[in-house]
Amino acid sequence: MAGEPQPDCLFCKIVSGEVPATIVRETETTVAFRDINPQAPVHVLVIPRVHHPDAAALAAAEPSVAADVLREAGQVAADEKIVDSGYRIVLNTGAGAGQTVFHAHAHVLGGRGLQWPPG
Length: 119
What we know:
- There is one protein chain.
- This protein has 119 residues and is an alpha+beta fold.
- It contains three helices and five strands, in the order αβββααββ.
- Strands 1-2-3-5-4 form a five-stranded antiparallel beta sheet, covered by helices on one side.
- Helix 2 packs across helix 3 (63-79).
- The radius of gyration is 14 Å and the shape is globular.
């Protein structure tokens, strides 16, 4: 069921503490942790504690939690001192867009020049 932890979801397991992660921030509604395969010097994932398969589903079901994810992405950028140099927030939706874990999440990338268009 949407919003409920899924037993086969890696990010739900990180939220529960079942799978370790390098957590950099936690709030009542979000968890932020370093990506295990970083694509930039700063690469942090911000996830909601509730399970929704992608950002669109999260925004439709729980817009306040979607806003929390974005707010925390900005706070991660501030904590990582990449606000002045610039950073990117990426929300992949669907396998064709590169989503590999189907639990809504935002990538916060920075610490180097980021080209446009991406990939």
